[in-house]
Amino acid sequence: MRGARPDIGSRFDPLPFRAEAELDAIVARSTIDRPLRWRVPALAVSGLAGALAILFTAVSVFHAPQASMAAPPALEFAATEESVGHLMSRLSSAAESLPGASGSAERIDYEAWYSEVIVDEDHAVHYVQPYTVSRVRNADFSGSQTTWAGDIRWGTVPADDDADEPGTLLEELTFNAGEFPLVYTTPPPRSASSLRDYFQAVLGDSPSTGDYFRAIHDLSLEWVLDGPQMAAVYELVAELPDVTVAGTTTDRLGRAGVGIETATRVGFRDVLIFDENTGGLLSAEETYLGGLDWLKNTPSPTVFSYVSWKELY
């Protein structure tokens, strides 16, 4: 498993797409007979520990995995008649002034939440507590990653639960020159055709539209995109099949945006939400739609993860 991404050191880092094949092979093997509770990032968003969480929940035959009883409410969208192509063109124009990173360092701050999968039939999580991450990467690929516990957003923490106090420092990592962990190790290109090739180098030859949505999500956790780079994203999305305009909404941080969605990744619907004024990416979400054996006790549809970008420098 570690060979899929040997430089990962944090349980909060993104999991590369190609590691899913490694998981599939492991899941087919032996069982584990003990109750476990893991915070599980949804498929393409996690560190190695998150990947192992999927493994442990999926292979247990003694305790059928179930999702947390708490999840954010589904976002509400106001329908629009705008086509995907027109929306992408409009967002591309709005993004022309995006400056990209300023100075020699890139800093990306975001809030994230992932569903917990429980391998313990007597335990369930009754609240949603996201966390906040700040990633700083210098020009020599040194940097840092700091993670704090966020506020309890939905639900109530039982008296006997071990929830982290909001603001608690969960993890603080530093990386020497050349060691900053990245899935996408070179800056993203500024044309749609080059961007497609860039993504396929990680995704493989036949990614679904949902896989491209997750790739845009992963890329935005690692690089601050400027106007031409965002224009390439919008041009690529306009070329993808099975994309619909979800409509206007308010994201998890209370910001107005417009969303697009696709249900082409097995078991999930992926949503990207953009700022209509700046053309920047505000949030990404995935909703579990059912049909996966390792989540057979998970209600569907249910919000499974979200990331909301705060500041990009």
Explained architecture:
The longest helix is centred in the C-terminal third of the chain and has 13 residues, at 227-239. Residues 1-9 and 14-67 have low confidence and may be disordered. The protein contains six helices and 14 strands. It has helices spanning 19-27, 48-59, 84-94, 192-203, 209-220, 227-239, and strands at residues 36-39, 66-67, 106-114, 116-119, 127-128, 131-137, 143-149, 154-155, 169-175, 244-250, 256-265, 268-274, 281-288, 302-312. Strand 10 and strand 11 form a beta hairpin. The protein has 313 residues and is an alpha+beta fold.
Strand content: 25-35%
Question: What is the ordering of alpha helices and beta strands?
Answer: HEHEHEEEEEEEHHHEEEEE
CA-to-CA gap between the ends? 33 Å
Q: Regions with pLDDT < 50 over 5+ consecutive residues?
A: 1-9, 14-67
The secondary structure category is alpha+beta
What is the averaged pLDDT score? 81
Number of domains: 1
Widest sheet, order of strands: 9-7-6-3-14-13-12-11-10
Percent helix, as a range, is 10-25%
State Rg: 19 Å
The counted number of beta strands is 14
> Biggest sheet, in brief?
9 strands, antiparallel
Instruction: Tell the overall outline.
Output: globular
Number of helices: 6
Organism: Protaetiibacter intestinalis
Transmembrane segments: 40-62
Protein name: CU044_5270 family protein
Keywords: Membrane, Transmembrane, Transmembrane helix
